[in-house]
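Quick one: structure for this chain?
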Amino acid sequence: MAEPQNNSNNSNQITAKVTVPPYMKAISGSVGGIVEASCLQPIDVIKTRLQLDRAGNYKGILHCGTTVANSEGVRALWKGLTPFATHLTLKYALRMGTNAVLQSALRDSETGKISHQARLFSGFGAGVLEALVIVTPFEVVKIRLQQQKGLSPELLKYKGPIHCARTIIGEEGILGLWAGAAPTVMRNGTNQAAMFTAKFMFDKALWKKQEGDGTVLQPWQSMISGFLAGTAGPICTGPFDVVKTRLMAQSKSGGDVKYTGMVHAIRTIHAEEGLRALWRGLLPRLMRIPPGQAIMWAVADQLIGLYEKRFLHNAPL
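Got it. Here's what it folds into:
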């Protein structure tokens, strides 16, 4: 009787290691990113304008949105969509794929399970990599485009994303595309550590869902888990996001710059504008990031869940 029991244990250990492959996670994230970008670009434009508004021209989210639409046209609310959509697609593919690779490397070799510490580290590592490889250069271009005001294209410094990138490289060097890299790394690393861990915990607590169990969450269930998981990050990383935006927006082509780095920017903003200024744009971030995570996970979970159901056949963790 002992030999069949050992065979059963060996079988459980083998199936416990069966997980969704990283490439499937990357594909699901990229598709979710396209849908998210198309839906939420106006909120991102408003957030950027509010964070750059040192003169108090905008009275709030609605006033900012209506001002931009009235003075520059409704299409201005989708300024920077091309780099934003491309950035989100590549970012989510890298984020989801890297997180899956790191989790696979950190899983217990016997049980196939992953500790909370390893889950946090995997998320942080994915956030750092996406910040350096994709997020920083794309957001520099996006923010430079979004801060431009006016209706006449011939009067704008940057004519489009490619022209913007070329101009930055020509005037500031290739490193100009990585302005604000330090706060971006801190923001994204912390965000993803919290988001992946929280998403796993909400899925398990609310829906009894675990990766590889073969069940497919309903889109509304994924949206609730994704929304809740996407809430903590913006509150914790608000100062990093404001500093990132300020550093990315300033051009170095004119010589002197207002902010020389992340720490200097935090000190300067705090001294000149007060502590609350470091969380400027938080409300539009909360209007964009949690709903964005809800949309992305609703799409990604459907693709991942269908893969699990078809190929993993209820393989336990």
